[in-house]
Amino acid sequence: MISLIIPVYNEAQSLPSLFAALEEVSRELPPMEAIFIDDGSSDDSFDLLREQARKDPRFKVIQFAANAGQTAAIQAGIDYASGDALVFMDSDLQNDPADIPKLLAKLDEGYDVVSGWRKDRKDNPIKRNLPSRIANNIISRVSGVRLHDYGCTLKAYKKDVIKPVKLYGEMHRFIPIYASWQGARVTEIPVNHRARQFGSSKYGLERIFKVILDILVVKFLSRYVTKPIYVFGGFGLAALFIAFLSLFWALGLKFFGGVSLIQTPLPLFSGVCFLLGCMCVLMGLLAEVVSRTYFESQDKSNYFLRNLINIKPKD
Q1: CA distances from residue 288 to 62, 227, 233, 293, 298 in whole angstroms, order as listed
Q2: Beta strand residue intervals within 2-70, DSSP E
Q3: Given pLDDT bands bounded at 50, 70 and 90, which one contains residue 227?
Q4: Cα–Cα distance measured from residue 176 to residue 155, given in angstroms and rounded to the nearest whole number
Q5: Coil, helix or strand for 64?
Q6: C-alpha pair distances (Å), 169 with each of 70, 88, 310
Q7: Is residue 205 a contact partner of residue 254, using CB atoms and an 8 Å limit?
Q8: What is the DSSP string of 73-85?
Q9: Where does the pLDDT of residue 127 fall: very low under 50, low under 70, confident under 90, or very high at 90 and above?
Q10: Rounded mean pLDDT of the chain?
Q11: Residue 132, SS3?
């Protein structure tokens, strides 16, 4: 069985066509379920999803009480999916459901993660395509997992590599990186990409800055999440070294150059660096405690549910 996970946010105009396309492609698929996550839509999206679920029990609906973002929607889909393979896709018709069998065929070849690559992308070449290429190149270099298109939602995963993943913030685009940390085999195939038919993109140029910050988080998590003292402590020791170096320099100027300590900013600079170094070391120790608490704490969801349709509530 496969699980299709499809976040929805104000896509009422797109949903009827998407339902028809999924019903068509389902003839080529093993038994499937399509889990739609209504991320606090303010249009008729939930009504359409509820009606479709009433007609076909393979279509299942999770409704959020308020908009929580795409990452939380994908996490909810992962939490409630029951398939052996999970396929993510957008609900705006830009992803082609006909590509789903190709992704699953790659999984059958032994890969654990198959990422879609919108090779012939139908978005604005300046506002969307160029920033995306730059971001993808940076992410690939920083993470070591080289993909052409991290931003493509259309991806397929084996259940074993995706179920342990817990997503926060805007980290859904980095799931292949998380999976690779667990030894997953990751590959990429070209997929069809269609121009948006209805509405407008939910993302703007500000997404670039979010991606840059997310990359920093990914790099930190990949190397230091279990040893944060190496980051904070490293900065702290460097600051302490600069503090003592500045102090010795100031004393050298006083005793060998005849320069009074009040005539140079070095003593003040040394004091600031000393305090900064102490604070960094203490923050590192605190981060160690937080890190251990994180790994030992119980699982907590980052979303709030209002309705479940054709899905049993979790214990």
Answers
A1: 36, 7, 11, 9, 18
A2: 2-8, 32-38, 59-64
A3: confident
A4: 9
A5: strand
A6: 9, 18, 28
A7: no
A8: HHHHHHHH--SSE
A9: low
A10: 86
A11: helix
Strands 59-64, 32-38: pairing is parallel
- Cβ neighbourhood burial of 103 (10 Å; 0-12, 13-18, 19+): buried
- Residue 125 pLDDT > 70, yes or no? no
The rounded distance, in Å, linking the Cα atoms of 163 and 284 is 30
**Is residue 221 predicted with pLDDT exceeding 90?**
no
d(CA 136, CA 156): 19
Output the six-digit token pair for 234.
Answer: 């490293």
* 265-292 tens-digit pLDDT: 999 999 999 999 999 999 989 988 887 7
Residue whose structure tokens are 């920033």: 131
Contact of 224 with 230, CB cutoff 8 Å? yes
Helix (H) or strand (E) holding 34: strand 32-38
For the segment 185-216, what is each residue's pLDDT rounded down to a tens digit?
A: 999 999 998 877 776 655 555 666 777 777 77
Cα→Cα distances 66→9, 39, 304, Å: 11, 7, 8
Asked whether 189 and 102 are in contact (CB, 8 A), the reply is: yes
Helix (H) or strand (E) holding 157: strand 155-158
